[in-house]
Design goal:
This protein is of the alpha+beta class and 300 residues long. The chain has a domain of 98 residues. Helix content is 43%, strand content 16%. It has ten helices and four strands. Helix 4 runs antiparallel to helix 5, helix 5 runs antiparallel to helix 6 and helix 7 packs antiparallel against helix 8.
């Protein structure tokens, strides 16, 4: 996984004493306003710190290029809706992650997604433990999204570099089959699930979504500081691959995730481009991302 255009330079700097870091800077918030029982609210008072410690103090990879200046920024925002007597909580979780663009320090979004079917157990003093061999409602939920995001990050630097991380997320989703915890498998009320999501990421027919994702970032955004024209073309090439794949396999979860994370960034990126470039991109987006078309009116 090549997390920098100048990876050898980074490695030399680390050998000289630069500090290795965990992969994530983690921000967690928990909204309990919908809970009416004060005892349930008090129990969840320790959830934010437990999650920050669980993710932020653990090394998920052996990648030496994660440094304090090169971490993934991860935001997890919970809205808790129900609580049961045995300390089971349900609700929604908003997941957002970004990584820095080469040479700028500015973030580029990897994912912005609301999981509407979250269920986990939590009690006072509980600290989730890292184990990928057995299913546990909270740690498995967190690890699933950690590996999904690590996969997206890796794909943005190296063609199909996220394969190993997606496979780990898929294994976690498969372990959920022995439980009745909501959100993991399709149900009678919804076809969306974490298992369906990760299976699509690993389906070979969607491979050009991932190739387009790589081009958008590594051949596009990361090149802008060195060669703006080449970088702009890289972003266009990435969008073209994604648009072409969407014609073959419309309405995929992957396409929806990409544009939910990127539509504002795309609009801003091309705002100052020549008219012919803006119009070319707008035509691509008309078919590839009709749900955000109102956001692209500045490109017409």
């Amino acid at each position: 996984m090549f997390r920098s255009i100048f990876l050898p330079v980074l490695v030399l700097l680390m050998i000289a004493g630069q500090t290795r870091a965990q992969e994530f800077q983690v921000d967690v918030s928990v909204n309990v306003q919908k809970l009416t029982n004060d005892a349930d609210r008090q129990v969840l008072g320790g959830l934010e710190q437990a999650i920050r410690d669980y993710i932020g103090q653990y090394r998920y990879t052996s990648d030496p290029t994660f440094t304090p200046d090169n971490q993934i920024r991860l935001t997890l925002s919970f809205v808790i809706e129900t609580a049961s007597m045995n300390r089971k909580f349900t609700g929604q979780m908003f997941v957002a992650a970004s990584r820095p663009v080469f040479g700028t320090g500015k973030p580029t979004s990897l994912i912005r997604y609301t999981d509407k079917l979250v269920e986990f157990e939590f009690y006072t003093g509980y600290q989730p433990q890292h184990t990928e061999q057995a299913f546990e409602s909270l740690s498995s939920l967190l690890d699933f999204y950690v590996y999904l995001i690590l996969g997206l990050d890796a794909d943005s630097y190296d063609p199909q570099g996220g394969q190993i991380y997606y496979a780990r997320a898929q294994r976690i989703a498969s372990l959920s089959g022995v439980t009745s915890v909501i959100g993991w498998l399709p149900s009678t009320t919804t076809s969306d699930s974490r298992k369906v999501l990760i299976d699509e990421f690993l389906d070979p027919k969607y491979i050009n979504f991932r190739n387009g994702f790589f081009k958008f970032h590594y051949d596009g955004l990361d090149v802008m500081q060195l060669n703006p024209l080449t970088g702009e073309q890289g972003v266009i090439d990435g969008l073209s691959l994604i648009a072409e794949t969407n014609k073959k396999y419309p309405n995929s979860i992957w396409r929806r995730l990409f544009f939910d994370a990127k539509y504002k960034e795309i609009s801003e990126f091309f705002a100052a481009s020549p008219p012919e470039i803006r119009q070319q991109v707008y035509r691509l987006l008309q078919s590839a991302d009709p749900s955000h078309l109102s956001e692209y009116q500045n490109l017409r």
